[in-house]
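Moderator note: this is an archived Q&A kept for reference. The question asked for a predicted structure of one protein chain; the sequence and the answer are reproduced below.
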Amino acid sequence: MMGQRFRLEVEPAMGSLNFVTMQADLRRYFRMKPFTLAGRALHVGRWGVDGSDGRLGRMYLGMPQLVRGYQNTSFDARIECQSPAAQTGFFNCPVIEQLIGSRIAVGNIELRLPLIGGIGVISAPGAPPVEIGAFYDVGKAWSTTGDPNCQGQPCSFGDRDWVASAGLLVRANLFGFAIGEIDFVRPFGRPDKNWMWQFSLSGAGF
């Protein structure tokens, strides 16, 4: 609701593959009763000589907790992927490929209004908190040149475009078990996709 928190983490891996996983997560909350303006800047990446080795899994920027509107299950290969291989079930779709890499950078901003709960506009102490709001997400995923998972496509930082989305949200605490969120979102990096609904469950919001 207010204040700030940050996390800085450096985790080396040494052996047959040598790289360092780095994470920087900064969050700031500005309370403007009854609203809260929440912002986050996040970077997670594998750095070092083997950070983009093809034997390591890739990060996906389109997770609902990162940049909304790009869930992999929401893509229609027949419409959004121009490659014939993608339309027959093979992974070769530029609009999805730009969301995959060994490093990601994300920025989010939300204007939140507590709707129901102990401090909600509708006071209901003991009820699961519910909030509504508006958001803007932006992010980029990239790898080093020569990453075998790039499949011959440009994937370094300078080659990739930032992707973004904006929309409205309803978020509820499901009795401490999970955070449920319904978004009405417009992904600007998907020219063949207009406004869409998205539902997600997570362990915690940002």
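Archived answer notes: The chain has one domain: 3-202.
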